[in-house]
Amino acid sequence: MNTLYLGKLEYADPLYEILLSQVCPQLKDPIFHVHRMPSLEVYKYTEEKTRMAVIGKFFKLDDPKPEKISRIKGEYENLQKIRAYGFDTYPNYVVRPIGKEERIGLALLEEYIHGKDLDYYLRKAIYDRDDASLKERLSALASFLYALHERTDSEEDIELVPINAYYEKVLKKLCKQEIISSLDRRGFLKLIDKWLTKALLRKGKKVIVHGDASPTNFIFAQKRYVVAIDLERMRNADPVFDIGMVCGEIKHAYFWRTGNPYEAEPFIRHFFESYSSHFIDDDKAFREITMRNPFYMAMTELRIARNEYLDLNYRKRLAQEARKCLEWGLKL
Predict the structure, then answer these.
(1) Which class in CATH covers the domain with range 116-330?
(2) Of 29, 119, 252, 282, which one has the fewest beta carbons inside 10 Å?
(3) CATH tag for 4-111 (out of 3.30.1340, 3.30.450, 3.30.200, 3.30.56)
């Protein structure tokens, strides 16, 4: 993970007193080295003597987007909530929140986790042909997500209105970015309307989902230990919301790096089978999940296509891959 070293945290910085009291209260005059993480407004603080490290996530006090601020501020409570379900011990673990201080824009102070994320193993499989390591981590991730969904299962019906609204928001952005045309956008909306009439989408009950199940948000501390981070988008939804997002990210990883989206298929199937294996009737679970998956997988592909750091032509191809995914899923 690329980080930028910014120097030592000054004693006069209000954050210094917070780190001193909440991270290293036993030390006299600790020295914290500061690195900026790849994500904006996220920093790593490492104490010089003990090498103890924490992550600080900030928000702009004058940010004009109240919804964004509210989401960022809510991660501290989200982490506490999920850890209370038993995710405070390995092998399925959620990062430990330490504190927050909104008066200085500190939304969350959390422990730093040492390990490799899922994207590391995707790259090893793609470039080094280390398929076994990737499959092993996908099995562990499937177990984590099953535990998350099973422990938070509710009797509430799945709501599709928020998902529909999110689709519309993403398509509007892609149209504005000229990744899709106005005609394409209307075509997508018609496909989504067809999906929304399917009783299949209402199968099951709402659970708590991670909400941003991208490869960099799952760290493997050891072979079978999964640590989830970045739960600011946590919500109640169909468990396949998370499954479809992981599958969409796997396809993107291969499509982006090899030019062939179909190279991802063996790993997507392995992930499905690993997740389904936790159910009493694993064949039934596999069928129901794979039939709902295209709806959420396409949503993920469109979501990724918004990223401006990706090649323009690739973003357009990814959007069309999402359309094929929706069309194919309707035939199941």
Answers:
(1) alpha beta
(2) 29
(3) 3.30.200
Contact between 111 and 54 under an 8 Å Cβ cutoff? The reply is yes
Is the backbone of residue 147 left (phi > 0), alpha (psi -120 to 50) or beta? alpha
All CATH 3.90.1200.10 domain ranges of the chain, comma separated, are 116-330
Domain with CATH 3.30.200 in the chain: 4-111
For the chain, helix (H) and strand (E) counts, in that order, are 11, 12
CB 218 within 8 A of CB 188: no
Name which of 115, 173, 196 is nearest 307 in CA terms.
Answer: 173
As a whole number of Å, the CA-based R_g of the chain is 21
Q: Within a 13 Å sphere around the CA of 116, how many CA atoms are in the beta-carbon half?
A: 13
pLDDT 10s digit of each residue in the chain, 332 long? 688 999 999 999 999 999 999 999 999 999 999 999 988 789 999 999 999 999 999 988 877 777 878 888 999 999 999 999 999 999 999 999 999 999 999 999 999 999 999 999 999 999 999 999 999 999 999 999 999 999 999 989 999 999 999 999 999 999 999 999 999 999 999 999 999 999 889 888 899 999 999 999 999 987 679 999 999 999 999 999 999 999 999 999 999 999 999 999 999 999 999 999 999 999 999 999 999 999 999 999 999 999 999 999 999 999 999 999 999 999 98
Handedness of CA 183, 186, 255, 221 (dihedral sign): positive
Q: What is the pTM of this model?
A: 0.95
Token pair recorded at residue 285: 């679970």
Contact between 256 and 310 under an 8 Å Cβ cutoff? The reply is yes
Cα distance between residue 137 and residue 139, in whole Å:
5
Check if the beta carbon of residue 79 is closer than 8 Å to that of residue 110. Answer: yes
Asked whether 255 and 315 are in contact (CB, 8 A), the reply is: no
Write down how long the chain is. Answer: 332
